[in-house]
């Protein structure tokens, strides 16, 4: 017949083995959730490991495993959010810079063409007094061509300005969206049940 102290020792050893088995399942569940890039939360870990959330809160070793996993997941998530924010911002910044560069080139071209038209108009007035009508007609044709080119450049200038405005607007929208998402993350983390120590 087994004595009471022997029965108590056996029960304690069984509970210890059961706890160790649960801790191994918790570690395995955390590893699986990490590989699947799932959100590491107490309920998700408990469900995957087949243990109660109470066990994760009350057992010091389990609580330590969960806290470490949640902290690591949060910092990884923050890094991903920051990287995505920087990628979007860099993309829109590059588009805006390209649009500004094209706008500057277009503006310079318009100024050059205006100067050329002014020079030709002056030459045309001079030639009207000294050359036959055919040369005057040739200059008038070139002048008309240049006017069309200036008109085309004005249209390109307007289109580039609209693209630049659109790029700036999209950048502002992306910044606001990222700020909203970060605020939601902070709010969700604030509402999450606190881990007991």
- From N to C, what is the helix and strand string? HHHHH
Biggest sheet architecture: none
CATH class of the largest domain: Mainly Alpha
CATH topology-level fold name of the largest domain? Helix Hairpins
Low-confidence stretches are none
Overall pLDDT metric: 82
From the N-terminal CA to the C-terminal CA, the straight-line distance is 42 Å
Structural class: mainly alpha
Q: Give Rg in angstroms.
A: 37 Å
CATH architecture label name of the largest domain: Orthogonal Bundle
Described by the principal axes of the CA atoms, the overall outline is rod-shaped
Q: How many helices in DSSP terms?
A: 5
The tally of beta strands, per DSSP, is 0
The percent range for strand residues is under 5%
Helix content: over 70%
Give the count of structural domains: 2
Protein name: TetR family transcriptional regulator
Organism: Streptomyces justiciae
Keywords: Coiled coil
Coiled coil: 136-191
Overview of the molecule:
Keywords: Coiled coil. InterPro entries: TnpC-like. This is TetR family transcriptional regulator. The protein is mainly alpha-helical and 197 residues long. It folds into two domains: 55 residues, no CATH class; 114 residues, Helix Hairpins, CATH 1.10.287. It contains five helices and no strands. The longest helix is centred in the middle third of the chain and has 71 residues.
């Amino acid at each position: 017949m087994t004595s009471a102290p022997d029965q108590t020792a056996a029960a304690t050893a069984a509970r210890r083995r059961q706890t160790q088995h649960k801790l191994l399942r918790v570690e395995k569940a955390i590893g699986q959730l990490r590989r699947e890039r799932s959100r590491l939360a107490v309920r998700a870990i408990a469900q995957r490991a087949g243990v109660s959330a109470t066990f994760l809160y009350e057992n010091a070793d389990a609580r330590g495993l969960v806290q470490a996993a949640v902290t690591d997941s949060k910092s990884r998530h923050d890094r991903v959010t920051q990287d995505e924010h920087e990628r979007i911002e860099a993309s829109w910044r590059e588009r805006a810079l390209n649009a500004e560069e094209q706008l500057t080139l277009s503006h310079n071209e318009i100024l050059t063409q205006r100067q050329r038209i002014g020079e030709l108009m002056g030459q045309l007035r001079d030639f009207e007094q000294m050359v036959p009508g055919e040369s005057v007609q040739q200059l008038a044709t070139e002048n008309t061509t240049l006017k069309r080119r200036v008109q085309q450049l004005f249209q390109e200038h307007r289109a580039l300005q609209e693209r630049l405005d659109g790029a700036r607007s999209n950048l502002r929208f992306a910044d606001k969206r990222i700020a909203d998402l970060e605020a939601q993350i902070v709010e969700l983390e604030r509402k999450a049940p606190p881990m007991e120590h």
